[in-house]
Structure prediction request, 637 residues.
Amino acid sequence: MRLRKVAFYAVAILFAVWTILPIVLIALAALTPRQELYSWPRQFVPSTISLESFQFFVNSHGVLASTGRSVIVAVATVLIALLVGAPAGYALARFRFRGKEAFRIGILLTRMFPTSLLAIPLAVLYLKTNIYDTILGLAFMHAALAMPFVVLITSSLFLKVPYDLEEAAMTLGCSRIGAFARVSLPIALPSLVAAGIYTFVLSWNEVFASAVLTVHNRTLPAHIISTLNVSPLNFKFAGGFFMIIPALIFIFIVRRYLLSMWGVAINK
Amino acid sequence: MADVRLEQVTRRFGSVVAVNNVDLHIKDKEFMVFLGPSGCGKTTTLRSIAGLEKIDQGRIFLGERDVTELPPGQRGIGMVFQSYALFPHMTIADNIGFGLKIKKVPASVMAERVNRVAQLLYLDNLLHRYPGQLSGGQRQRVAVARALVIEPAVLLMDEPLSNLDALLRLQMRAELKKLHHAINATTIYVTHDQVEALSLGDRIAVMKDGQIVQCDVPMEIYDKPANVFVGSFIGNPPMNFIRGEIMRENGQLLIKGRGFSITPSTRFTPILQGRSEIILGIRPENFRVQFHEPTDTTNAVRASVEVVELLGNIRLLTIDLSGSILKVSVEPHTAVNPGENVWLTWNEDKLCFYDSETEWAITPSRVSA
Ligand SMILES: Nc1ncnc2c1ncn2[C@@H]1O[C@H](COP(=O)(O)OP(=O)(O)OP(=O)(O)O)[C@@H](O)[C@H]1O
Ligand SMILES: [Mg+2]
Prediction:
């Protein structure tokens, strides 16, 4: 028993270090003054905290514009994914219909195709429909990537809101939609927001589709990737750190919901 | 004025017929109880009246209105769910006021009506709390208050007391009865607890397999069960059923069964005539137990006591009548021991007769028909 516990913590710690170490290293490098970054041997901890690299990164060409685009794409992704995915999740939770299980599995199967496999056909399709290199087109793609997650998570959210509650609201004068809007939606809202934030982060981090489907209208990760081999070291570190921060903050805010969404209660 | 009429109502779930061609007329302001074993269709019938269940056939009328196609909110009903179904994200006041808010009742009127109902159900101190902060009994009262505040013509309740402990259930039962007299609604109450049904109902509709087997006032249901099922479902312990053959000896009708032979009085002749077999139904309390051979033994049956149980207000005897087991209740102070031989007689007025094949009650009119 004790051995199992030790093994469990060992693996957990290993995993945590595996995840955290690169973040810490990038953060430290990003906050190191430029000279120190290139000096040898390099100190592990910088002598002074410097925002020099950061300023350089933020002020370099295309960064602010692509950051703005990233935000717009992410917001649009969240809206599309929730508007389409949440009703699908609700239907999965509430209704019995023919082919329900097939539908559920079909949603999961969409994640089986690596995006790289779809890249060329998608690019062709986007060119044909004139949404290539547009913000909206990219948001569609990100929403499609997030869809399985949104549908399955919202369906499990709505399953947790007893249908009785909606029926009670209906006997008290609500229409079916009214009952949903006044009862199920408010109860599920915090978790829906969490799902939305998760989707936001997903879009914010996504590189591949962005790089393939846009040329001029690139999001931040795609912009950084495409300029990576021509940019100096401090630009890379600052860029990496800049990208990580919002994701970290958001995930930290909603971690409680993420855990409960995946069925693990967080220990207080 | 809201009587409730069900005309040939049928509801199927795939191959299961949950409600099977039910006809029922519930009078205005009546307290009607649906009683029956699990899965007999009580809830489905109630939900059909509420409009939460779409019926496959038939019509439903509330008062003069045909409500068959109306959504729940427009039927003029209020419903109390078994789970209470309180809205967890709203205070008790908002829960109770919900129906009024939907109906866009002005805030001042709303507050007043919420307060009035809250007082009626002793909830006035809890209005600012959330459902999660209430006890089971309090939640139950909120559920009732929320259904009542919209002043429904018909109040529907699905096993509202089943989640409460025994003592609280007893208390709430009396309160619900009082409440029914205080409000002006027709009430339909679903339960599988026969004691609740007998104590609350003006009338009881006993259901089985989606059909109403018997619908009558509690005393009739108890005294004259329409068939063997009703007799064994209602009453604790249930009615005794004894099979016997009908014979004719010296021009007199006899009922002979395992270990007994009795001569019923001639007023039962119309019931017995022309049959070869019959089922007798007798409630445990309608026996008389004698410890000595009575002077007249024509209708006395000898049997042995197997088990004696004191249940507080009665002493329950399990009696072996040549292989058939009878439950007989006697005064709690009766001195009786297992193994003892006793003589049983019964109150002939309370005797019920059932067809040996259909198990339905035989009444003289049924015979002539
Ligand atoms: N939504 C449903 N889908 C399929 N079958 C159902 C559904 N609701 C009820 N049934 C079936 O219809 C029959 C009647 O069910 P109902 O809930 O009305 O019984 P009940 O008398 O209320 O029983 P209980 O005392 O257990 O609550 C049962 O056989 C049940 O399995
Ligand atoms: Mg039920």
